[in-house]
Amino acid sequence: MPFIHFAASSLLALLVAACAVSPADPGEAVRRALAPTGKLRVGLISVPVHSIKDPYSGELRGVSHDLGRELAARLGVPFEPIVYPNPAAYVAAGQAGQWDIGSLGVAPERQALFDLAQPHLEVDYGYLVPADTRVASVSEADRPGVRVATVDRSASDLTLTRDLKQAAIVRGRDLSALIDLVMMGEADVIAAQKTNLYNIAPRIPGSRVLDGRPGSEEQALAIPKGRDPLASAYVQEFVEDAKTRGLVQHAIDRAGIRGVVVPR
Predict the structure, then answer these.
(1) pTM (2 decimals)?
(2) What structural domains does the chain harbor?
(3) Element (H or E) spanning 157, and its range?
């Protein structure tokens, strides 16, 4: 009898603990607001902070991917990741309502197009230089005659266009295009999120990511404008909960991302 009483008490304690940590059902109104098609369409780009594919298992992982999957589970709807080839296509698809939730660098240009939650990542910018570089430090990148390559209409592009005063900016459609520009001698530096630079550095023999950072960006979950305000309110609460419970940090660790922190 004492054992049965102990087991019953333990089971009750576990159930109480589970209820204490399980997010409440958001309700049908929130589901319709966030997933109007009946599934959560999560917009992604093929970069580590969004999603990268494991070369052996084919599994996707990344901060935006993992948060989107968790959000879909809490809503109780199917999770549909949609990967876009570059930032321009990604932003255009979001404006057209082709995805329900995405992740964007916090900038006035983006805030005019999307409703952004509180930031869940702070991402360092950086510079990658080839082996025969004439740019040895971050401060030497913004000089006359230096050609800095960045992805067209990315958050890095928006920042560089504002901050670089002397260097010339060369734009490519994606990171692979930037690698080609450097390899063909048409650019001297690649500017991007540091985590992206660490990822592509092995594709440029002898290249290195410079110490220091020319800046950083905050990343936030984004909803296309025009959705029911319930959607934004729920995503705000979701992000706070994901940060508090360590879900964002777990996604960072699972993807092996460097150069990012979870903002407080």
Answers:
(1) 0.81
(2) 25-122+217-261 (3.40.190.10), 124-216 (3.40.190.10)
(3) helix 155-163
